[in-house]
Amino acid sequence: MKQKSTATNPSFMAKNKDLLVVGGVIVVLVGAATAYYFMTKKKEKKEAELASASSSGITTVPSSSSSYQTPPFIPSSSTSSSSSTKPNITKTGYPIKYGSRHPDVKILQRYLKIYKEDLGKTGPKRDGVDGQFGPKTSRAAQKRLKKTVFTQADIAGMRKALSSLGK
């Protein structure tokens, strides 16, 4: 009698080992990229909050689990003890600094664009020129102009430079 030789079929894992390894590597890389993206967004948000807190007079005490914010001490006066109104803080005039919203901030931002600074993707042309003195404008101004508070004379000089360049 003749015996049949039985050849066992290779398993799914053995057939597709390379495909499974490549797929696993892709899943790990996508997971790492997603985690990196969300961590950088969280870091930028935290930096923006810290910058706005420091400009508004709120003291931040860092801790290991969360940040605790202490409001500035405002003594209560005897005349306004019954009414609780917020202090009127305007960020529209001079000097122009972090947190300002002013048409002349656009002059500053256009001036910084001469240096090819990254001001984000806001504004009508999506080039970062939006009239809001935010963290990216502050960082670029500190890097290129070595200061973050600008007077009317500073803006006038920038306006003159921009007009001489035809921008």
First-last Cα distance: 97 Å
Instruction: Tell me the strand percentage band.
Output: under 5%
Helix content: 40-55%
- Give the total of domains: 2
* Largest sheet features: 2 strands, antiparallel
Instruction: Name the assembly state.
Output: single chain
Identify the overall geometry: elongated
Strand order in the sheet with the most strands: 1-2
Strand element count: 2
Q: With helices defined by DSSP (H or I, 4 residues minimum), what is the helix count? A: 5
User: Measured on Cα atoms, how large is the radius of gyration?
Assistant: 29 Å
Helix-strand string = HHEEHHH
Low-confidence stretches: 78-84, 86-90
Map the helices and strands.
Elements: H1 12-15, H2 17-56, E1 59-61, E2 68-70, H3 103-114, H4 135-145, H5 152-165
Antiparallel strand pairs: 1-2
Helix pairs in contact: 3-5
Biased composition (Basic and acidic residues): 120-129
Organism: Patiriisocius marinus
Protein name: Peptidoglycan binding domain-containing protein
